[in-house]
Each structure stands twice: as C-alpha cells, then as structure tokens.
Amino acid sequence: MKIKHKVSFLSFIMITLMLFATINLYPAKDISKKGIIEFVNLETGCWIIKVTDKEIYYPINLDKRYEHDGLKIEFKGKVVDVMTICMIGIPIKISLIKIIGDKSK
C-alpha cells in the first residue's frame, strides 16, 4: 500500500511540475521605451538594452549597426518567450529602433 501512495505522490509532483513548466513567465506584450545599449561580457558576451538598473531587455534581433556601447535609443518591440544564451534581461523582438544620442554626450 505504501508503494502505491509513493507512486501517486510522485505522479502528482511530475504533473504539477509539467504544468508550471508551461506557464509563460513573460507574457507577450508590446513595449515602447527609451534605453541605452550596453555590452555585457557574460559567457560569450551579449548586447542588452538597459532602461533602468532593474529593467533590462535582451534584443534577440538587434542589428549590428546598433551594437555600440552607450548608444541611447528609443525602441518598440514585443516580449517573447524564448530561451537565450544571454542570461540577463527579458527577451524582446525589436520592431522599431531610433538613435537619440550617445552616452558620452
């Protein structure tokens, strides 16, 4: 009887974990913000958009011409639920980007 309870309990745990694994942590939503492009030397390195110290985005489709540390931009995009090698920031797909200045100016 104890083995049957253990199997039922383990089955319950597995089903619960599978349900939580399908929850979307970052619901798809459109965003429109201003931020600064920064290079983060983490693992292989990645480019992020820092809006505030606590609001950071990882643009999955950032064009090479915007890969300049300190570049001030306005951008629009959609939060996407994907896994990335960059372990910082909320993944977004950029739909519009505009340069508004340079951090050094």
Q: Could you explain the architecture of this structure?
A:
The protein starts with a helix and ends with a strand. The chain has 105 residues and is an alpha+beta fold. The longest helix is centred in the first third of the chain and has 20 residues. It has 1 helix and 5 strands. The radius of gyration is 20 Å and the shape is elongated. The protein has a domain of 73 residues: OB fold (Dihydrolipoamide Acetyltransferase, E2P), CATH 2.40.50. A hairpin with a 5-residue loop joins strand 2 and strand 3. A 5-stranded mixed barrel has the order 1-2-3-5-4.
Key features?
105 residues; alpha+beta; OB fold (Dihydrolipoamide Acetyltransferase, E2P); five-stranded mixed β-barrel; 1 helix; 19% helix; elongated
User: What pattern of helices and strands is seen along the backbone?
Assistant: HEEEEE
Unreliable sequence segments: none
Alpha plus pi helix count: 1
User: Largest beta sheet, briefly?
Assistant: 5 strands, mixed, barrel
State the shape. Answer: elongated
The helical percent reads: 10-25%
CATH topology assignment of the domain at 30-102? OB fold (Dihydrolipoamide Acetyltransferase, E2P)
Rg computed from alpha carbons, rounded to a whole number of angstroms: 20 Å
CATH architecture of the domain at 30-102: Beta Barrel
Task: Provide the residue-averaged pLDDT.
Answer: 84
Q: What's the level 1 CATH class of the domain at 30-102?
A: Mainly Beta
N-to-C span: 73 Å
| Secondary-structure content class | alpha+beta
Number of strands: 5
Percent of residues in β-strands: 35-45%
How would you describe the oligomerization state of the chains in this entry? single chain
Strand order across the largest sheet: 1-2-3-5-4
